[in-house]
Design a protein that fits this description.
The chain is an alpha/beta fold and about 350 residues long. Helix content is about 35%, strand content about 20%.
């Protein structure tokens, strides 16, 4: 990490030895890479069968971009309300929005010693992006540059690093310092209010274009007692709540699904329910499809069932793998007391996972 100091004018700046020393590799001085390719107008259409989910006519892209790339970029990453003059209509606009904004922050923070160095950075990055030699993650395309390029503002309450105060602060305009990280790992405890605070935090991350992942192993299983004497509703009931919330909150306010990861330790009391969750829900979907509901993944059948909005993974230990090799038992344990809940044949459990 480069050391950042304050210069005599109070402006944040890098120490001199940490200036970027960039050389041109793809671009030429005085030549904009975006001017050196052939641009053509095309229609972006996304749909299933005869149903159009998205359509934007006369979008501008390089002649060497595939139809699939045009459709994805136009439908998911172009900003502005469809059908208005504010809507982006060209890949050039999108690339310039992102690249010029990153350059601007680089100049403000002192990463470039000269204008030529900043030009080199902008040209090289523009070439890489337009020729698909590299690409940013989705939140960058969703949010970067919307305020500084287009003057878009709105929303409060997101967090950012305040260089002037050298501290974490709250934004009054969430577009001014956009959330451009792809995914966040968040902890969750065995506490009802904490669980619902995580729902709120996930919604905020999804809203501004990022994804989130958590290991839910600390939450007690449905086999365990509550402090008040009742029985817990269990982990899976809460995972269904999280699943619905993710399905309702499109990432970055687009048609893109929320990016959500759920992880569970293999000794959790509800591990078998977790392993078979999606396969059981899939059987329900197939029954609905057989009854005449549309088979489209975004249709009524899949909308009705749970478990469709997360990537589920299991934390597997060496001790479990040794139990599989030795064909011995594997025990699940209560989160509250550590007592054994169930015993499974390790190989049978592995086969269920597979």
């Amino acid at each position: 990490m480069s050391a950042i100091t304050k210069d005599e004018m109070g402006k944040t700046a890098l120490l001199p030895e940490n200036f970027f020393k960039l050389k041109r590799f793809f671009s030429r001085s005085g030549k904009n890479p975006l001017d050196e390719i052939i641009w053509i107008k095309r229609d972006a259409i996304v749909g299933s069968g005869n149903k159009k989910v998205f359509e934007q006519k006369e979008v501008e892209f390089p002649d060497f971009w595939s139809a699939n790339a045009v459709n994805i970029t136009s439908s998911k990453y172009f900003r502005g309300r469809l059908g208005t003059r504010e809507r982006e209509v060209s890949l050039r606009q999108m690339i310039e929005r992102v690249v010029k904004n990153i350059r601007r922050f680089g100049e403000e923070l002192g990463y470039f010693k000269t204008v030529e160095q900043a030009d080199t950075f902008e040209n090289e990055l523009s070439h890489i992006l337009v020729h698909q030699k590299g690409s940013f993650n989705s939140p960058v395309w969703f949010k970067c540059g919307l305020f500084h390029q287009y003057g878009i503002s709105g929303g409060t309450g997101n967090w950012y690093w305040n260089f002037d105060g050298n501290e974490v602060d709250v934004l009054s305009n969430n577009y001014e310092r956009p959330q451009c990280s792809a995914c966040f790992i968040q902890a969750v405890e065995d506490d009802l209010m904490g669980i619902y605070e995580l729902v709120k935090a996930e919604a905020r991350l999804f809203k501004y274009g990022s994804g989130t992942g958590s290991n839910f192993s600390k939450i007690r299983g449905r086999q365990e007692k509550l402090s008040g004497g009742g029985t817990s509703s269990g982990l899976m009931s809460f995972l269904e709540v999280f699943d619905r919330a993710a399905g309702s909150t499109k990432s970055g306010g687009t048609t893109r699904r929320a990016a959500k990861m759920v992880c569970l330790d293999l000794d959790h009391p509800e591990i078998m329910d977790f392993i078979t969750w999606k396969s059981k829900e899939e059987k329900k979907a197939r029954a609905l499809i057989a009854a005449g509901y549309p088979a489209d993944f975004n249709g009524e059948a899949y909308k009705t069932i749970s478990g469709q909005n997360s990537n589920n993974s299991i934390r597997i230990t060496d001790s479990f793998m040794n139990a599989v090799l030795e064909n011995t038992k594997w025990k699940t344990t209560m989160r509250t007391t550590g007592a054994v809940v169930d015993e499974f044949n390790a190989r049978d459990l592995m086969n269920q996972i597979c």
